[in-house]
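In line with agreed milestones, the collection of sequences with tokenised folds has grown. A representative record is reproduced below.
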Amino acid sequence: MRPPLSVVIAARDEARDLPALLADLATAAELVREVLVVDGGSRDGTPRLAALAGARVLHDGSGRGGQLAAGVARSTGAWLLLLHGDVRLPPGWARALAAAIAAGETSAWAFRLRIAGDDPSLRLVELAVDLRSRWRQLPYGDQGLLLTRRLHDAAGGIAPLPLMEDLEFVQRLRRHARIGLLGPALRVNGRRWQRLGVWQTVLANARLRRAWRRGTPAAQLAERYYGPGPQGAYQKAQRRCSGSSSQP
């Protein structure tokens, strides 16, 4: 029997972190059928590194939602694991996913969140994320998402939005399935938290979500988040911070 899991990774300028994530995935050949890295226009060699690591590389410049949608469309597994390119899988991740898959197809799952960095305020943010994910079943994209292709399709699939694609999809998904939390905590790069400051980042994210709920188009929100044009302020800061992140 072929492994059940297709892993779809949305990446842009993740040459520093992506190889470690791909190495994590390579340790579970009995679980992972294929890894698809969908590049959003990297300038740092991300696609080449992904290909060298054995991933299937696709290209989509429409934003993270479009990247994930493109990867899912080209994948073949009965189960999907959707990830961002700046995360690290925790010890025990493969056992946790295998147990979730064995539990059946009626639930979707996300990881608990760990933000790389030593600031005690980050631990409070993680606690808030944990509570939101458990009580409201609202994990966000940086926590990863494990679900069957059947559930993905029943919920209407991921919309090709440049921002808020995770919130928009999970709100639809939870009408079709319970979204549980996996035991291990996935670790995300802390560069944006370092750049803006912890509470400034919390506030900025809250403002974006509020604007989205009030009907602001995703393209406008993406411009606020990333900066205007393909070389916006966030991407430039992302490259500056990539050498100082506490994530190995």
Summary: The two ends are 35 Å apart (CA to CA).
